[in-house]
Design a protein that fits this description.
alpha/beta, ABC transporter transmembrane region fold, Rossmann fold, 2 domains, 24 helices, membrane
Amino acid sequence: MDSNLKKLIPFALKYKNNVILNIIFNIFYAFFSTLGMISIIPTLKVLFKETEQVTVHPTYKGIGYLGKYGEELLNYYITKLSTERGEEYALILVVSIVIVIFLLKNIFNYLASFHVTRLRTGVLKDLREKLYQKIIHLPVSYYSDARKGDVMSRMLGDINEVQNSFFQVLELVVREPLTIIFSIVAMLAISTKLTLFVFIFIPISGLIISRIGKNLKAKSKKAQQETGYFISILDETLGGMKVVKSYNAENLFISKFNTSVKKLQQLSNSIGNKSNLASPMSEFLGILTIAVLLYYGGYMVIVDKSLASTAFLGYIALAYTILTPAKNISKASYQVKTGLAAAERVFTLMEEENAITSKENAIHKDTFETGISIKNINFRYHEDNVLKDFSLEVPKGKTIALVGQSGSGKSTIANLLTRFYDVNEGKITIDNVDIKDMDLQSLRGLMGLVTQDSILFNDTIKANISLGKLDATDDEVIAALKIANAYEFVKDLPEGIYTNIGDSGNKLSGGQKQRLSIARAVLKNPPIMILDEATSALDTESERLVQIALENMMQNRTSIVIAHRLSTIQKADMIVVMQKGKIVEQGNHEELLAKNGTYSKLVSMQSFD
């Protein structure tokens, strides 16, 4: 069994009652499907007046004689009805039996489908929930390498493909094979010689169909990867529409998108052609078998006279019932190959190792007592160290500012403190507890983060601000907005704090969005505040308003300010000047100016990136 198929079993076991009932109803479906074809034979016998006359009620002689007993019992009632009420009533009886059998067949078909639908939608829901949990818990570092479009493609397209293809397996291993087995048993009962003749063609058909499906899994995987790429282009286009238009880059993006879609079309055509060939090929091979049967069976009826004409017609009907399940098996086997490729992509993401997690028996810490200590840390995103033997003490209640040119490692400190990334060497402690030993949620619960990019969601202002405190009242939200100097524009919006701000908050200006981000941090009310160039997106007037808010917010808090502008850091207790991952100067504003070094040069250039 394929390893990806094995991985699906635990998901399906949750719905084992549906699996069991589906199997039971499929058995009944297969049985009545065969019985329906067999029931045509007595009807033909009545029509052609070939019914065996049975005048004495037959005796049941055990399970081994059940078929013979059933036939004799039916013949007895046909004989009785024909004698007492006329042949018309005998015909009504056999036709009624056919109707009841086909009705039961279709009832069981519906019940089997009902339970497989419950199984499919249930497993789909569980797979999506588990995959989303994985996506949301994977570290930030994963998404710096992975394409968002590819992740979205796995969540949307691949999981659907798994649902559509793998649950064909239940039909593949239960319904269709049983229909074929029951039909073959009935065919053997009618004519062993003719049935053995059929068996010559089955391996030949299977070999031809399997040759057509070669390489289908590999091509399906390529198509799914290309789908991820084209969703990625679409996502980037929608996200960067202003840049695309302002640089007249529409044709470049159209070209990239069209190339991807064309490649996907070629792969889809190749996969579709092979899949489409399975059904007509299996039907043609089946009809070829029946054509040979018509000749050989006709010979047995007309020349050899070893087979009754009514039995032969029933036999042909049974042989034809094998065609549909055989066709379904070949079609489903193709879909399963496509599903294997999709499942591989889903489970690869689901099994992606998350290096940044809470260790077992992690320390839950909801207080902040003494300070943060960064000791001899080295960190690299790829090969070269961004931080080299970096050490820094941040005492409780103090505001520490990190300044330096772009690429000096300032924002990396924020990423390491929040454990978006882990240090390669050295350690970071809070109250002498290594942050790797702390529960991840409690660590992040101690911190409020305001980034340069004000990340907001397509929801109301209240929903965005109360992200860190879901039970916040309207008054608490308004109080946080006032501290962030944001209430002045929020109160004028049509629905106040219940106004939807659009995708990524695009209904607001950059300064307004940033003030909402600050209000979100204010409402969370954490003891440690990390401001990663929090005012860089603001105009002068907004910056002045926000600066007052930040100063109010930073009182009685430990703050790490990654600075962009001079005004943000003048009142900091200590300013740390960084260059190429190392500290080159530290002190307060006046002390550093007096040194007339790197800081003084940065101030004169007003270049705090």
